[in-house]
Amino acid sequence: MTQRVRVQNVTVSRDGIGAGEEQTLQRPFGHVDPTELMAWAFATASFPGRTDGGGSRGLEDRLTRDFARGIGAEIMGRHKFGPQRGPWDADDDWIGWWGEEPPFHTPVVVLTHHERAPLSVGETTFHFVDATPEQALARALELADGRDVRIGGGVSTLRQFLDADLVDEMHVAIAPVEYGHGLRLWDRPEDLTDRFHLERVTAPSGVEHCFFWRR
Amino acid sequence: MTQRVRVQNVTVSRDGIGAGEEQTLQRPFGHVDPTELMAWAFATASFPGRTDGGGSRGLEDRLTRDFARGIGAEIMGRHKFGPQRGPWDADDDWIGWWGEEPPFHTPVVVLTHHERAPLSVGETTFHFVDATPEQALARALELADGRDVRIGGGVSTLRQFLDADLVDEMHVAIAPVEYGHGLRLWDRPEDLTDRFHLERVTAPSGVEHCFFWRR
């Protein structure tokens, strides 16, 4: 089986905003409230980390439970790991936003201009790599051990991989909210139809799910 | 994790028909053409056994690629294994409709009034069991080794498990065709909403996907 490069469950607003500005330790999404933006995913039975036994088991649960299927590694931007900028503080033993059992359970390549030693947290190992998208992908494909690579975002990282034409398949959810400003993925999904098939399906939640795959 | 009882990717016509009458060795679905009824699934990249690298990767691919996820055993009616009726012919070394590498890759409990020794084909072992739905499920849960059990059908078997209230979660696709007569799953999906949440989503293929989960 060929290894594929996949994007899963990234969510943007109707005006294409995937995260807010002014990210801080307390506010990973800046002025955007992730519980509003990602409400469709939090509501499902298979949302990572859910333990209460509740949640919906419809279309959107099929999407959250597909998150890890066949994935051997993730690539994320530094700001999806934490809010730090510039050189890492050598005394900083903070393990990132994802807690003691991050939901990845695979190697994760973290893109940064400031390399540091790998950090293992639970079943996830973060590799901090200063690399182009092509180089980072080569590394992740190797770490994935024959399985697929997920481009985890955030928005800037995803845009870099789309601009470099490195994505095979992508699911982006469009939440029924608007933010006006913030980190923007696109003007509209049709911007990508020169390279991708696009299928759009609206769920009963009001969220429109966009599925892209290479032409 | 609690083991769940799931139905995945069963397809019926608009008038609720899941298979035709007059099943023969050559026509597993009788007068119903499965390539018409299941066209939505055959068109996806993840349809079991597809090797040409083609196929769609939208919503319906998420459904076909979820088929085996977390499943440890299947229960099927005898007529999903083959067209034989009555006692098995001791000289019959036919391995069923599923070829030398059946798409199940787990133990399969085949409901029959005529027990016979287990049959291993590829990674699948068929266990031929004369049992009530409750007994068959207990056996399948044991064989599933902590994972979920899929009720694979056909229509009569699925109806038995629904009537015994043994299903936790169900996906049924409604194809845009009508047959007028045949093996009928239901008059309409709403018949089940006393016990299940129901979410209905129409895909661009014209197929309506019904997701049920327990209230």
From TrEMBL, chains A, B:
Key word Cell inner membrane present: no
Entry-linked Pfam families: RibD_C (PF01872)
Statement: the UniProt record of this protein carries the keyword DNA-binding: yes
Any one GO molecular function term: 5-amino-6-(5-phosphoribosylamino)uracil reductase activity
Protein name (Swiss-Prot/TrEMBL): DNA-binding protein
Species of origin: Brachybacterium saurashtrense
Domain Bacterial bifunctional deaminase-reductase C-terminal stretches: 69-196
Superkingdom, taxonomy of origin: Bacteria
InterPro entries linked: DHFR-like_dom_sf, RibDG_C
Keywords: DNA-binding
GO terms, biological process: riboflavin biosynthetic process
